[in-house]
Amino acid sequence: MRLRAYAALLLFLSACATSAPSPAERASRNPRIANLQRAAVLPWTDGGRCVVREASQPWPLLVEKCYRTLDHDRIEFHDTTGRCTVASADAAAVGLGFCVLAAPEIAVGAVVVLGVVVVGVAIKEALDAYELRHASPEEAGTSRGTKVASREAEAQRKPKLKPEPAGQDWQPPVPPVPVDRTGRASCEPVPVPHAGEDVPHNECADKFPPNRYPGMDVLVNGIRFDALQVGVRVLWEIKTHRFDTYNGFIREQEIEKEIVQLAKERDAALACGYDFVVGVSTDAHRLALLKQEPTFKIVVTGCKR
Hints:
Blueprint: H1 2-17, H2 23-28, H3 31-39, H4 49-54, H5 59-66, E1 75-77, H6 83-86, H7 89-94, H8 96-101, E2 111-113, H9 121-134, H10 137-157, E3 190-193, H11 199-207, E4 216-220, E5 223-225, E6 227-228, E7 234-239, H12 248-271, E8 275-280, H13 283-292, E9 298-300
Parallel strand pairs: 7-8, 8-9
Antiparallel strand pairs: 1-2, 3-4, 4-5, 6-7
Helix pairs in contact: 1-5, 3-9
């Protein structure tokens, strides 16, 4: 209730402090789109789904609804105007970050985002849909024609080396690995859809650490990890196969393969300042890995298949 009362106060202040826009500005300024554009520069743990759902609300109310879905590890709030500090009791009740972000206008330097923001999938889709709906027929036709022409030209320049896969053989393309200015793989975590359709494995990766990006893997330093833990810089590799049911020979083969994989993932994580943890379903699996490499951090998740 205090959040709602504080949001109402900010709405009242914005009505008093903001000059009335001209008719032309009112016609060209869509509040929903303005909110989406404002939110697009912020990191969201849910891909912006909450923002899209609440985008028609005034900005302070949107912030009230969706503040919890912000990636707070990547945002710093600074009360550059002193208004939130003056509010004292109210600011303490709702939090300085909420007060700064929900203000009628965000002062320069008040919200600092760490790292590069990848626009939330849901926000981008909503903005693209709005742009397409409001383009003139000529613009829309030109845009579609340009895209078609570009695809045809690209197809002519690049002859097919092999037939296109179909049906169950098709796999989604892996996005290009982000690189920094030196051309090396980036340490910036980039959420990407889970690589496989192993539902029990994906559920374990989302719930056990828990995953900062539910439903997503994360690319770091050119390596795909199963999860980035909420609130800390810890990357996870999750194993859910039924190791205990394998015979001795298969167990040995599996452990040798996993040791190579996990060592590579740990090196990539540590090089970017992340810790690395392996989650396995059983204690037998944990002990078998530690026997070969006792320096691994391994926990038993108990996740079932």
